[in-house]
Amino acid sequence: MWNWIKKWWKLVSSPPKHFSLGFLTLGGFIAGIIFWGAFNTGMEFTNSEPFCVSCHRDNVYQEIQGTIHFTNRTGVRAICSDCHVPHDWTDKMARKMQASKEVYAWITGAISTMDKFNDRRRHMADREWARMKKNDSLECRNCHEFVYMDFTRQSQRASNQHSTALADGSKTCIDCHKGIAHKLPDMHGVEGF
Q1: Cβ neighbours, 10 Å, residue 182
Q2: What residues does heme 1 bind to (predicted)?
Q3: pTM (2 decimals)?
Q4: Domain ranges of the chain
Q5: 102 is in an annotated binding site
């Protein structure tokens, strides 16, 4: 056992050419921590409301201000990333990669004016609704947990839908709650509208 430790220590402490393997390992470890911290800080910044509003101030940010998710009696408020970015790390990274197409559209001017934005609104909404349907409205469920719903405090229609279609998994939140925070596009051909 001691022989193995001595061999390992000699390998780590002896210089390969200019720097010891221990120095390089420690340096790599510290550089990894710094990289991870910077990467995580950058990812969290892209989840902030100021980051989202830097591009969306004149379109969808104005729309959400009149909704229950922005201002309500309890003061609990959702920001953009609460509804558009999953909270789990792997899902969040996948969503960030998908969002790079949206950043590209903004940079190239495809949605730089309100007219251009409205021309693509249905396409963008369809893509977002499909994403949310595919992940079973994960972002909604980060705040709205089915098992804690009090059906007696809901309208009759909501209580019926939640206790049947949502309970049996045949529908997910976004199936019924399209336009909950943003202006709807032309809904011609969309089920239920």
Answers
A1: 19
A2: 52, 55, 102
A3: 0.75
A4: 20-175
A5: yes
